[in-house]
């Protein structure tokens, strides 16, 4: 890495590690959960709330931002950090995943992808070079290589084709990035659910001088065991001194099990999306506030929570807000969920330092399994 | 008034007054703007934000709360203050206005109104006695008499019929309230746009020992001059030592002109509703953030505002959030609007103390008229 970007591991516990990934804009404590700020906003949250919960970095989506409001526009306005009022590190994805899942009339070639915007039908092209250019225009601290992510299950041949294309795009992405001081670029391991392909991808990317390595193409419909198997398969072939980022994952259980297998960074829409749909993640497990059993329940979600939204409002009130489609329901439950995710990560970091991660994970899982007694 | 509820006028400036309406739960500085918390939430706002902006009291809607989650349920959960996490004074309307505007299959008799819920079709009855019972169950600090509000324009005969019915309901409401310590009940002047009816209503209510008097049935479609005429007509017939509340009004201009005519309290959905529709109230006038002219405008809404949402985000960003239908757009613009409304009220209170209200109003109006230069 350049001197301006460093990754220091402070402690190990089995395959798990805790440390700090440092940028001029700030430190990212790992293992880290990155809230997703798709369209330059972590939905239903003020940025100072996101920060106060312990988030050191948020994720922005290249695909969404290039379509609206446009990368050149954000650059002219001073970059994404200023635009969204988040002065801390930002990771941007490459746009590859969402081009495949959201855009219309797309055409994939060796050079890249041409597609139609899902917003207004305008034509766009995304290539490794354009993706890196957009991410630089946004001012992203951690930029991701442009890749092709296939849905699982898929044929081995399809997984292999996409993996090899992603490797060629990795080389072009790395070259297009070309050492921007104080910024980093990560490669992305692909290869579907085929161990040999995953290993080949990991090895090839490890030789390419990325600042970190991501595992992509998981949490796309496969069972948790398949995901964990792939992590275990890949991990020995990733440079141990570089950060490992598992993209788009997952439930709190996914996070803890992945941390035990050596993952340092995560992003996922789950806590924010669930919060907009009446679901709360708590140390008692996931609670569906839409359920009628909360109608007369005067208890808060968790009186010991660090989050005011979990302490200062009754379940009956949250149920009422959810049933009434009130914006405050989304605000409070997103807050609760991001707080819980960050608390789980903080607990994992502390447990690794104290070499008791397995015990910590068991305790947290036991809390979910125990659930709660009725009011 | 009872000793537990006092209204002290500190200064006059022409017909305008400034003072404090005191309850065991807290003081309301007048002239006061009450944000509307229809369904036990000021939409898109945390209660501590509402408080920090200078709101001393919020309004709850009896009609909405009786239908969902139900008055008896809120009482069992400890009352509306605890339910919505707002420990300061709450004013509740009587339900009369919304029964007429929102419910289905309603039937009006001397006794009250039977109607079908717009939420689930269930049958309800609202009478003066039931309205007061519901408001007491909610724990409302300021309860409003049950009245019938007609839409303007209407025939003089219709205005007279509704006014007289409202007077009979006022007597029943006052009797049903029966001196709850630390709480207040207000009568509501009706009479459409007919001066003689308004005067008759005001005089009759003034004899009924209410803690305050409201002017209802305005801001229902009539021009501003008609509204101001009615205020001027009514005001000499209201007890000067009791608070005067103009219901459901209005724009910042409506507020200032009404304050100059002796109004002490206001409520209106305008700042919160406008905030959910991309409109910002500022000292430069109303700004429509949906407008394409903001696309590349890096300036904040008002760099001198007391509200972070008006200072820390560019118009380009707010435009982007509005166009993208992001929840944060509604959160930020509602915040901006309530901040501006409270600032206007604070300025008016100060100006009355300094006997320069007319100058203050002229300055504020000049700011709106001047607007802004292009970026």
Classification by helices and strands of chain A? alpha/beta
Oligomer kind = homodimer
**Stretches of chain A where pLDDT falls below 50 for ≥5 residues?**
none
Query: Overall mean pLDDT score of chain A?
Result: 96
**CA-based gyration radius of chain A:** 20 Å
Structure annotation, total helices of chain A:
15
The number of E-state strands of chain A comes to 16
Fraction of residues of chain A in helices?
40-55%
Ordered list of secondary-structure elements with their pairings:
2 copies of one chain form a homodimer.
Chain A lengths: L5 E8 L2 E8 L2 E5 L1 E4 L11 H6 L5 E3 L1 H6 L3 H6 L3 H5 L5 E3 L3 H7 L1 E5 L4 E4 L6 E4 L1 H11 L3 E3 L11 H22 L6 E6 L5 H12 L5 E4 L8 H11 L9 E3 L5 H8 L5 E4 L1 H6 L3 E4 L2 E4 L19 H4 L3 H9 L3 H27 L3 H14 L5
Parallel strand pairs in A: 4-14, 5-6, 6-10, 10-11, 11-12, 12-13, 13-14
Antiparallel strand pairs in A: 1-2, 2-3, 7-8, 8-9, 15-16
